[in-house]
Amino acid sequence: MKTVICGTGSAIPEYRMDNCELSQLVDTNDEWIRERTGIQARHIAKKETTVSLAAGAAKAALENSGISSEEVDLIIVSTISSEVILPCTACEVQRMIGASNAVCFDLNAACSGFVLAYNTAAAGITAGIYKTALVIGSECLSKLTNWKDRGTCILFGDGAGAVVLKGEEGEGRIPFACSDGESGNVLTCKTGLGQISEGEEYMQMDGQEVFKFAVRKVPEAIREVLSRNNIGPEKVDWYILHQANKRIVEAVARHLKEPIEKFPVNMQEYGNTSSASIPVLLDDMNRTGVLKRGQTVVIAGFGAGLTWCASMLEW
Hints:
alpha/beta; single chain
């Protein structure tokens, strides 16, 4: 049994903040941000929430798939930034879209979250536990961002993406995932539920260490997933990476010795949306006709934890 994506959707906040507007908040400028990150703008939730964005992306994915909400028997939402703890975001999405037959839970693996949620749902489908799954990445990172910290506020944005999964006859793919909790202090964010120092409620990042981690581990993860599935890189049509930084994507392409044209990006418009970035990019590519049935796609995430992972799928 293999898992296929039969629908995609996304939801993006209406308010758009470009680099020029951001430069009014911190000492930066459009050229500096573009050169170092590739980001030109980001969308910030004003009236939207992590839950409402997740539900919007889910509805769009179901419409795209032609599948009713009652057919969904699993909803996984990957998020680190929900406004609700109880009930979980996935249960709120279930209520809002009317997916009354679904099992629902959230998953927290930061920027690797969507890939790990996809793997979890695919495993359940392959095992015959579920038939139809909604996998959603939704984030309002603006709520966790210190808008006085130039090193982080230039990076992050809000949004949600979703995919509908079903099982089909065929050979499944073997994913790869790994974690390194010993190095987790390079990217942190604490909550007010415990004792914290001023500023720790915002994301704090050692940018150089995160960059070095990503350009080292992401190519390793991709090579491992190709090896596990006995597929050469020349057979891969698209490498869809977490949209963190254009320089990271370019470095991964160089390490793999693969054409940069195989590495699509949309971070220029959305910034780093953590677990939402991969499904939002999938939806952009699907709705513009870039993705074609039968193409081989590798998705790869990396982020806080530290975590990194890769999966292979046939479109």
